[in-house]
TrEMBL record:
Keywords from the UniProt entry: Carbohydrate metabolism, Lyase, Magnesium, Metal-binding
Described purpose of this protein according to its UniProt entry: Catalyzes the dehydration of D-mannonate. Has no detectable activity with a panel of 70 other acid sugars (in vitro).
Originating species: Azospirillum griseum
Family of this protein: Belongs to the mandelate racemase/muconate lactonizing enzyme family. GalD subfamily.
Name of the featured protein: mannonate dehydratase
One Pfam family this sequence matches: MR_MLE_C
Length: 401
């Protein structure tokens, strides 16, 4: 079997997605998600100009060899653009392999380790009462795990608060700027989770995304203040370039820590995992080198009792979600999978076999990862430049959004 062509499909059904489609001489095709929010065209160009020409004529079944060729052969290793491009190729090749075998991907990854993949929903509101209501709605829908984000009194435009039904952080055009106050945030967050536990008890798994906005000692303080409310995890408490910084947080709090949605290789998290400085690793199929590399990260994590909690926001396409669910169904150390509902337009552009029932998802039994793309429909949604926000402190200092 040989790769005869590979194409990039950029579409914007409410938000931008970049999809790689690999075609073969036997008519079998595979899809990979190459979406990098705010940098979509960089990955599209990396694939078009530097990767696709090298794929033509290769055997698509040689997944590992092609992965190594694209990683070692690039010379300039790692980074979000390179690893998203490699991820798209890898995911498409696994899709092809499943179709050739006539098996859903999870069967090629060791078979089911569980009946379904527990997912967590995104509940957010402008204030505590609204966030309480949103969390209650997801409990009603059967979700066992819910992330809660609320507006912070005195601050406008903080991370994670939807303006409409679907939360999308990127806005058209240039980055929007917002003002951040750590003091206001730290004084407020414990009251949100106290209210949630008073209303819903200790049953639901409650998660919270700090979104890189604290220093290590501030993160330690937050973790400590949240211990009475027993969070499932506190996510991205501080920027993770300095993996050692998490030792300081660990010394002060038992609140579990999740990190990694911005990671693109095992080297970003090797020390965090081996020193057990985190409890969940959030690297995703679409950004961390695909199924081949993410499985390596998950296997390393399993040795240290670290579980997965893969990123799954709506800026990762249904192709990534489908592939993540196959991996999540098979690996022994699944923690939870993030699930934000895509818009109806997105779901129509990307028909898929995965399902959601009572807070658990299943990838389905379709051979491959079970997600396709309606190219005719995709063409109706042209790319629209968009950028993620930027945060500053009140004195104008550039901060972490
Ligand atoms: O945990 C999450 O889902 C967030 O951190 C994301 O919404 C993140 O802000 C976006 O994926 C950025 O594009
Ligand atoms: Mg996050």
């Amino acid at each position: 079997m040989k790769i005869t062509n590979a194409r990039i499909i950029v579409t914007c059904p409410g938000r931008n997605f970049v999809t790689l489609k690999i075609e073969t001489d036997e008519g079998v095709t595979g899809l990979g998600d190459a979406t990098l929010n705010g940098r979509e065209l960089s990955v599209a160009s990396y694939l078009t100009d530097h990767v696709i020409p090298c794929l033509i004529g290769r055997d698509p079944q040689r997944i590992e060899d092609i992965w190594q060729y694209l990683y070692r052969g690039a010379y300039w290793r790692r980074g979000p653009v390179t690893m998203a491009a490699i991820a798209a190729v890898d995911t498409a090749l696994w899709d092809i392999k499943g179709k050739i075998a006539g098996l859903p991907l999870y069967q090629l990854l060791g078979g089911q380790s569980r009946d379904g993949v527990m997912v967590y929903a995104h509940a957010n509101g402008r204030d505590v009462p609204e966030t309480l209501d949103r969390v209650g709605e997801y409990i009603e829908k059967g979700y066992k795990a819910i992330r809660a984000q609320s507006g912070v009194p005195g601050l406008s435009g903080v991370y994670g608060i939807a303006k409409g039904k679907f939360y999308e952080p990127a806005t058209k055009g240039l980055p929007q700027e917002s003002v951040w106050s750590t003091e206001a945030y730290l004084d407020f967050v414990p009251s949100l989770f106290e209210a949630l536990r008073v209303k819903y008890g200790m049953g639901p798994h409650l998660l919270h995304d700090v979104h890189h906005r604290l220093t290590p000692i501030e993160a330690a303080r937050l973790g400590k203040s949240l211990e009475p409310y027993r969070l499932f995890w506190m996510e991205d408490p501080t920027p993770a370039e300095n993996q050692e910084a998490f030792r300081l947080i660990r010394q002060h709090t038992t609140t579990p820590i999740a990190v990694g949605e911005v990671f693109n290789s095992v080297w970003d998290c090797k020390d965090l995992i081996q020193n057990q400085l985190i409890d969940y690793i959030r690297a995703s199929v679409a950004h961390a080198g695909g199924i081949t590399h993410l499985r390596r990260i998950a296997d390393l994590a399993a040795l240290y009792q670290v579980r997965t909690g893969c990123h799954g926001a709506t800026d990762l396409s249904p192709v990534c979600m489908g592939a993540a669910l196959h991996l999540g169904l098979a690996i022994p150390n699944l923690g939870v999978q993030e699930h934000m509902e895509h818009s109806p337009e997105t779901d129509t552009v990307f028909p898929h076999s995965y399902t959601l029932t009572d807070g658990y998802m299943h990838p389905g039994e379709t051979p491959g990862h079970g997600v396709e793309i309606d190219e005719e429909l995709a063409a109706k949604y042209p790319y629209a430049p968009a950028a993620l926000p930027v945060a500053r402190l009140a004195d104008g200092t550039l901060w972490n959004w």
